[in-house]
Amino acid sequence: MSQRPRLAVWKFASCDGCQLSLLDCEDELLTLAGAIEIANFPEASSAVADGPYDLSLVEGSITTPHDAERILEVRAQSKYLVTIGACATSGGIQALRNFADVKDFVAAVYASPEYIDTLDTSTPISGHVAVDYELHGCPINKAQLLEVISAFLAGRKPAVPAHSVCIECKQRGNVCVMVQGKPCLGPVTHAGCGAICPAYRRGCYGCFGPMETPNMAALSREWRALGAQPRDIKRALRTFNTWSEPFRRESEAHAD
Question: How far is CA 69 from CA 73, 97, 100, 102, 249, in A?
Fold first, then answer.
């Protein structure tokens, strides 16, 4: 019987992009597979072993009654549970439904809406069970994911930066796009992407969600000084991490 730590990867409402980030690790994944038992990862293998598991990685948000029941089962089988990606950590882009009546969407999309069983909201995993760590991103950074897995299996705290994208811009030598007159979410967004968009003189879209203690009101004032209207600020904040508390609160302050 294997004595290696057992890993499980779970999918809820999501696009699978964060699971693919793990598969994209390629050589590193082979090394990881030699150190642990990948017991449950349907995206990678049809061979699924029953729990319990030492570490569970959960992608996706809770959007159906079945999701709400299944995440309780996942938590019960997992020594540690880590959520990966914007959907699992903040409800994802599908949380845009939370600002409206989901029944209107269902009626507009489906020919027979009476067969659709869904919740009124899309919510993060932490809204339903205890979570040991949240790894942000849409999709996540594969190097950060490997660090988180290694840290939990070694019994230490993950060494994932808590600073904003602005630091990554400095490290990359980017000229600040806001200095160039373009609105950017970089000052309030968690690092992890390598400042891809600002490197091409485009404002950050906030893919990695809010950094620790973001000053949302100050950023909004700077955006207004650059000519952005309240609706522009609201729309910029209502994307991948729309239901994260700092982004949600500030978007509501600029709602029509």
Answer: 7, 21, 24, 20, 28
